[in-house]
Amino acid sequence: MKKINLLLSTLLCLSLNSAHAESQITIFYPDKASVTLKNVPTLENLVLNNPALQGNVWWPGAVIAVPSATQLQQHKQQQVLARLKALSAVLRQDGDTSLAATVDSVYAQLAEIKVVGRLFVPLDPDRIQLDPVLDRRLSGQYQVYVTVEPKRVTLLGALAPYGKRDFLVGKDVSDYFTGLQRLDGAEDDTAWIITPQGEAQPVPVAYWNRRHNEMTPGSLLFLGFAVSALPEDFKDINEQIISLLTHRIPD
Questions:
Q1: Domain total for the chain?
Q2: Is 122 within the bounds of a domain?
Q3: Tens of pLDDT along 34-71?
Q4: What is the pTM for the complete model shown?
Q5: What is the CATH classification number for the domain harbouring 122?
Q6: Residues 108, 110, 111, 112: is their CA dihedral positive or negative?
Q7: Same domain, 27 and 44
Q8: Residue 203 lies in a domain
Q9: Mean pLDDT for the chain?
Q10: 245, pLDDT greater than 80
Q11: Is 5 helix (H, G, I), strand (E, B) or coil?
Q12: Is 224 in contact with 194 (CB distance < 8 Å)?
């Protein structure tokens, strides 16, 4: 995973700092055909008064990605899925079919997630105008994914049922677990919020450590595996899953 992160950092620097290569940017919309732009010099030129990005664009969830980095993230996704499949097989060999079923459920959920080689830079035109440091030169190929502002959040992990839930205004993260089943081997006291901007935040959700934390629309709430329930060779699987989820396309 460290090698992949190093490669992604290198790709980011090469993609954003080269001053000579021309840019080609493909914009993907949720409800119409994609559009390709050429020779857009900077992020500000891309997002400010650009006809291709006018209308109901939800900037907190807008994502810019590099195709080569997307390939790396998709490879990482396949590696995580392979590890989950191997974990399930080990558990079944040991007779722990209940925990293996939890692993199989998480496998199925992660297989549905679309990940890209996300560059962690804001695209909000107001932020870029107010802080010129946030502007970046664009060179090479990019993918931009935009969507409209959501009214729901996504629950994922060692819980059932998983999927989208209505956003609860002013409610604590733990309120989203009402009516849900924590599957065998689920973490007891900590969940993770993945924001639309790709930030990962641990949140305490047990009765003894709970502190008020709220989600925003478009966020993902991940409940991982209890480390104590995992074989030694798989105790880092939560970390790998969380890293993968920070590169998902918000919806």
A1: 2
A2: yes
A3: 999 999 999 999 999 899 998 878 999 999 999 999 99
A4: 0.88
A5: 3.10.20.700
A6: positive
A7: yes
A8: yes
A9: 91
A10: yes
A11: helix
A12: no
Query: Looking at this protein, which amino acid is placed at residue 177?
Result: F
Q: Residue 205: pLDDT band by 50, 70, 90 thresholds?
A: confident
Shared domain for 235 and 208, answered yes or no, is yes
2 pLDDT band, cuts 50/70/90, is: low
Closest CA to 152 of 186, 122, 176, 174: 176
Question: Tokens at residue 43, please?
Answer: 């992020």
Identify whether residues 176 and 214 lie together within a single domain. Answer: yes
Q: Residue 211 sits in a domain of what CATH number?
A: 3.10.560.10
Mean pLDDT of 130-152: 94
Structural domain for 47, as ranges? 2-66+117-145
Going by the DSSP 8-state scheme, the letter that residue 132 receives in this structure is G
Beta strands in the chain (DSSP E): 23-28, 35-38, 63-65, 140-145, 152-157, 159-160, 163-166, 181-182, 190-194, 200-204, 220-223
Question: Nearest to residue 245, comparing CAs of 83, 59, 80?
Answer: 80
